[in-house]
Amino acid sequence: MKIRTLLLPLLAAFLLSLSPAGAQIPDRTTGKEKEKNPLKILPLKSKKQLQKENDEMKAELEALRQQLEDMQEQYHASDSIAAEMIEIFEENEDRLGTGIAPEDYTPEITDSLLNLWYQSRRVRRANYELSPEIGYNMDSVHFTSNVPDSVFLQRLAKMNAYITLPYNETVKNYMILYSEKMPTKMQLMLGLADYYMPIFEETLNKYNMPEELKYMAVIESALNPVAVSRAGAKGIWQFMHTTAKSYGLKINSYVDERLDPVKATDAAARYLQDAYRIFGDWNLAISSYNCGSGNVNKAIRRAGGNDNFWAIYEYLPRETRGYVPAFVGAMYAFRYYKEHGLTPQDVDMPVHVDTFEIRRNLHFAQISELVGVPMDMIRELNPQYIHDMIPGNESPYILRLPSQYTTSFIDHQDSLYTYKAKELFSPATLENIRAAGSSSSSTVTTYVVKRGDYLGKIAARNHVTVAQIKSWNNLHSNTVRVGQRLKIYKGGSAPATKTSTSSSSSESKSSAASSEAGFTTYTVKKGDTLYEIARRYPGVSADEIKKYNGIGNNIRVGQKIKIPHK
């Protein structure tokens, strides 16, 4: 029942109470009806009594209206990404969206490593034109398979010793989805895996983490290195801008390291390592990658402190409920694809790659024309350079080429950097790139609030977050009024000033922390968790903060916490 309908009886009574004192109601009953149903004549109330009752009724009505407004504000105070997912779901006739509900999200989700999984992805080559929408509403679909449950169970038992892989109807659905229901997409991903999985494995081994975590990239981006979500998450690990910067990935006019499979994988591994230090469970760490640690902590509290994934399952955001089962499903399909008749597609990726450190500006066209490497291949191996240009003059950068071109590249190094340099690196070209990068992050527009608007809706339409709108406009609540003008910065970043930086994590630190010798003092704000605080200080984990301060996981608003300098 909608909240508004609950007020109708009260509103009706209130309107009746506003009738003038002593007003007569026409009597249309007959004499016989009066005899059968004699009316009891009540004494007329004085004007003062009626006024008192009216005042009491108005006070009660006002209290109910305030409660309704508070509930509506809480309902709409969700992150813009959640609002956008609702929009995607509503606009999709075939219901290919995940069917999330807005009440499942809080603003804590905004800075998480969130992907809008199974949305359309952008790629640069025909071979990579992935469209990994699953085509099913996984909340309601029920798949069947010729593979008996006993075989599924036996195969799961052989797969992993580090991450718990349960078997139930939800997990089974995703196992069948990946292994049987989308063979074309799976065969393409199997082909891509020959190139990308060794990168993931090497990084995870470096941090002594389970190799099985590599399958998260399958459900994040379908192994598409240039995947871009409508919310702005990018790369094979679907990093949001703020989180990417906080984990040391460079993003500027020339380079977006979210698209670099090697560096993005390293950042994702560190993120997951931090999450595991908090939760001590890989399923919960995986879940936090999708919805943020705040939502996982909230689910644990709602489950009475139980920190088992399936115990908190119903308290997680709906999308995240399917994230761990999807992870198991993808892992199963990659392990047993042969048993399901799948064959990896040939994607023409090199088996061996050599890396070169570039310390001068170098254009892909120079490499292609002198060394002979196909332009598409250079782009596929180096997707982080968004203008086909390596800005080596600024700082050293890595170039990856198929190993068969190594000798030719070395032979041409003397002439490589000067070849067509005036044309490719003209002042006008460089200025246009810088201007485009600057405008994409600092162009401001003014949005006028319309009837029916709320911050989540406005943020979703402009592809920014609620937190950003509030920061840009000095808003202290989620309430906006019709006609109010809001500043919206294109690209999601306000321009840097003398007193602030373009990094939201830096803004958070400067506004809530003061620096002292050896450590920074941070004041806990509403909605903070140790994990979220640690993310604002790269190199410092939540576990280290706890040890440094001699505290547990519970923190309170206003508490002073020391952040050790690294």
Query: What is the count of helical runs?
Result: 26
Mean pLDDT, to the nearest integer, reads 76
N→C terminal distance: 54 Å
Please bin the fraction of helical residues: 40-55%
Sheet with most strands: strand arrangement: 7-8-9
Show the helix and strand layout.
Layout: H1 3-17, H2 31-36, H3 47-76, H4 80-91, H5 149-159, H6 169-181, H7 183-206, H8 216-221, H9 241-246, H10 261-279, H11 282-291, H12 293-302, H13 309-312, H14 318-321, H15 323-335, E1 353-358, E2 361-363, H16 364-371, H17 375-381, E3 389-391, E4 397-402, H18 406-411, H19 413-416, H20 421-424, H21 427-442, E5 444-448, H22 455-462, H23 466-472, E6 485-489, H24 504-512, E7 513-516, E8 519-523, H25 530-535, H26 542-549, E9 560-564
Antiparallel strand pairs: 1-4, 2-3, 5-6, 7-8, 8-9
Helix pairs in contact: 1-3, 4-22, 6-15, 7-10, 10-11, 11-12
Q: Your description of this structure?
A:
- With 566 residues, this protein is mainly α.
- 47% of the residues lie in helices and 7% in strands.
- The protein has helices at residues 3-17, 31-36, 47-76, 80-91, 149-159, 169-181, 183-206, 216-221, 241-246, 261-279, 282-291, 293-302, 309-312, 318-321, 323-335, 364-371, 375-381, 406-411, 413-416, 421-424, 427-442, 455-462, 466-472, 504-512, 530-535, 542-549, and strands at residues 353-358, 361-363, 389-391, 397-402, 444-448, 485-489, 513-516, 519-523, 560-564.
- The chain has a three-stranded antiparallel beta sheet. The protein has a two-stranded antiparallel ribbon with strand order 1-4. The chain has a two-stranded antiparallel sheet with strand order 2-3.
- It is globular and about 110 Å long.
- It starts with a helix and ends with a strand.
- Mean pLDDT is 76; it is low at 18-29, 73-133 and 495-516.
